């Protein structure tokens, strides 16, 4: 059994923790936490404990959070946050994942961050500010490996567009869950026999199932470039389908033609 603590940082009304338009950090953290938990529940032998107030009404003191995690003997503590730089709109952007600073650094924390962080970068499609160290309470006072994710800047005119889009928050939550699943070697819950043996009937589509993460990453990169061209009909929904495994082979081939047609391959030498 793997025991995972999830902590959506702060509370709804925590002073200062908001975007320049008064959107609350907790609401972003909470959505990502909910999506992460939903995904974690698809794996076998996992127990999840949420140590913030899931209603957002109280900002549970950090000591209470880490005490609960320690008493419960969690295997990992994952704290979910969103960043702010100046509190005023700017072009700064990107994802950071923190582990405890030396000398109390736990090598397992860094390994877990290494599994989670790159997935958040891909999920959010913004720049990678790297894995960092800091002497934060939840990292220092938790007796188990601990990470703290900053899934984008609330005061970034770039990142806020993603943070206002549930597709991205879902992808981020699932990225955190999948990174933890990889580190702890979690196995998906058994699919009922009927579904396992199901092959597409005539006229139904085969699903696009790349066998390597590198191909998935490249497909995501192409989709993002097409989205950014803004010539429709390529929307983040396609990326969600890819991440959910519901993109079909025909979709994938079609995307390749769109990419060629729009000149995405013209620089290849
Ligand atoms: Zn925060």
Overall body shape: globular
Tally of individual helices: 10
Low-confidence segments: none
* CATH class category name of the largest domain: Alpha Beta
User: In the CATH hierarchy, what is the architecture of the largest domain at level 2?
Assistant: 3-Layer(aba) Sandwich
What structural class do the secondary elements suggest? alpha/beta
Number of domains: 2
From the N-terminal CA to the C-terminal CA, the straight-line distance is 51 Å
Biggest beta-sheet profile: 6 strands, mixed
Q: What fraction of the residues are assigned to beta strands by DSSP?
A: 15-25%
Ions and ligands: zinc ion
Estimated radius of gyration:
20 Å
Tally of strands = 6
Overview of this protein structure:
The protein is built from 10 helices and 6 strands. The chain has helices at residues 25-40, 62-72, 107-124, 137-140, 159-163, 166-183, 193-196, 213-229, 236-244, 249-261, and strands at residues 2-8, 46-50, 76-83, 95-100, 128-134, 146-153. The protein is 43% helix and 15% strand. Helix 1 (25-40) packs across helix 6 (166-183). Helix 1 links the parallel strand 1 and strand 2. The chain is α/β, with parallel strands linked by helices and 269 residues long. A 6-stranded mixed sheet has the order 2-1-3-6-4-5, sandwiched between helices. It has 2 domains: 2-183, 3-Layer(aba) Sandwich (Aminopeptidase); 204-261, no CATH class. The termini are far apart.
């Amino acid at each position: 059994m793997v025991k995972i603590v999830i902590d959506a940082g702060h509370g709804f009304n925590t002073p200062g923790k908001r975007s320049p338009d008064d959107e609350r950090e907790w609401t972003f953290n909470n959505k990502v936490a909910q999506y992460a938990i939903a995904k974690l529940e698809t794996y076998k032998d996992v127990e999840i404990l949420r140590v913030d107030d899931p209603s957002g009404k109280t900002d549970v003191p950090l000591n209470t959070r880490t005490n609960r995690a320690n008493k419960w003997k969690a295997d990992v503590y994952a704290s979910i946050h969103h960043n702010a730089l100046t509190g005023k709109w700017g072009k700064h952007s990107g994802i950071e994942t923190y582990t405890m600073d030396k000398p109390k650094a736990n090598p397992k924390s860094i390994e877990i961050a290494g599994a989670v962080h790159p997935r958040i970068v891909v999920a959010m499609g913004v720049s990678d500010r790297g894995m960092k160290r800091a002497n934060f309470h939840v990292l220092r006072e938790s007796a188990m490996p601990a990470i703290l994710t900053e899934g984008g800047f609330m005061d970034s005119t770039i990142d806020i567009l993603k943070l206002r889009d549930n597709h991205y928050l879902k992808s981020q939550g699932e990225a955190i869950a999948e990174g933890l699943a990889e580190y702890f070697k979690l196995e998906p819950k058994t699919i009922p026999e009927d579904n396992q043996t199901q092959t597409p009937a005539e006229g139904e589509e085969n699903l696009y199932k790349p066998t390597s993460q590198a191909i998935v990453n490249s497909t995501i990169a192409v989709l993002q470039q097409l989205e950014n061209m803004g010539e429709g009909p390529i929307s983040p929904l396609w990326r969600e389908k890819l991440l959910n495994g519901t993109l079909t082979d025909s979709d994938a081939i079609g995307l390749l033609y769109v990419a060629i047609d729009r000149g995405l391959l013209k620089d290849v030498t």
